[in-house]
Amino acid sequence: MDVIIENILPLTSQILGFELVQKDGSDLPAFSAGSHIDVFLQNGITRQYSLANCSSETHRYLIAVLNDENSRGGSRYIHESLNVGDTLKISEPRNLFPIQASTQKAKLFAGGIGITPIYAMAHELSAQNIPFELHYFARSKSALAFATQLHEQFHGQIFFHVDDEPESKADIQNILGIPQSSHHLYVCGPNGFMDFIIQSAENNAWNPEQIHKEHFAAVAQDTSNNGEFSLEIKSTGQRITVVQDQTVVQALQENGYCIPVSCEQGICGTCLTHVIEGEPDHRDMFLTEEEQAMNNQFTPCCSRSKSKILVLDL
């Protein structure tokens, strides 16, 4: 659907907020905290951005975009090319990072731009009178997006931890405590940050079922040992070779098979494809370990094959 950029908010020197509204001022499709939208940019790139505002707001979506120094073309284009009044094509919201219905108390952890879905969660938990703590980590106070709003709206529940203020250093063990079964932890941010929080939680007896995460970027993969393998299209029997420096999606596209892709990193699940035979080499961060072990689906944007042939349900 098409939306209008109603306002652009300078949240930090490197983060811009974008308020998106319907052209005719009508309500936008409903969403829940943790949802994201796909943004289809005019340079041909599609990117996902979490909705940061309260889910009770029907008149706008609020996203925040970091001008990433390692941008693959999405964030840089947004920062340099978009203006108030421009039209953006977006998807309806979808939620891969929801607040669990069994949550009676929540620990929220945000690192950097990972505050966006966590901010929406704070709104929703507050509206439902579910107690929570929000711990927001950044390199400096100037890098904290929504800092004023968070302090005003969730005073006593929000805790800032910044690298250049030693007195704000987090005592993770004390913050996590020993959880009850109705306690849930939600974390979003850089991969190293999330690994630290999750490992600390598991060391404090948090069960994996109580820990929920959302990745913004995939872990770098070693592709030096990529081998050549073949795909077989079940419906036609056609064989397609995937060479070392090629993704499955690229090989399929070159042979006329259009696989929808979005993040191209194995994070969003847009390209998820059913596997009938063979053993995928799973390199995604979307499927759970249990789902990967079933070997009946994989993400062709980044995953490969351990077997010489993968038979795909295409």
From TrEMBL:
PROSITE patterns assigned: 2FE2S_FER_1, 2FE2S_FER_2, FAD_FR
InterPro entries, sorted: 2Fe-2S_ferredoxin-like_sf, 2Fe-2S_ferredoxin-type, 2Fe2S_fd_BS, Beta-grasp_dom_sf, FAD-bd_FR_type, FNR_nucleotide-bd, MRET, Riboflavin_synthase-like_b-brl
Keyword field: 2Fe-2S, Flavoprotein, Iron, Iron-sulfur, Metal-binding, Methyltransferase, Oxidoreductase, Transferase
Gene Ontology MF term list: 2 iron, 2 sulfur cluster binding; metal ion binding; methyltransferase activity; oxidoreductase activity
Top-level taxon of origin: Bacteria
Residues in FAD-binding FR-type domain copies: 1-100
Pfam families xrefs: Fer2
One Gene Ontology term from the biological process aspect of the record: methylation
Residue ranges of domain 2Fe-2S ferredoxin-type in the record: 227-314
Residue ranges of the TM segments: none
Key word Transferase present: yes
Transmembrane found in the keyword field: no
UniProt xrefs under PANTHER family: CARNITINE MONOOXYGENASE REDUCTASE SUBUNIT, NADH OXIDOREDUCTASE HCR
Name of the molecule in the record: Vanillate O-demethylase ferredoxin subunit
Origin organism lineage: Bacteria, Pseudomonadati, Pseudomonadota, Gammaproteobacteria, Moraxellales
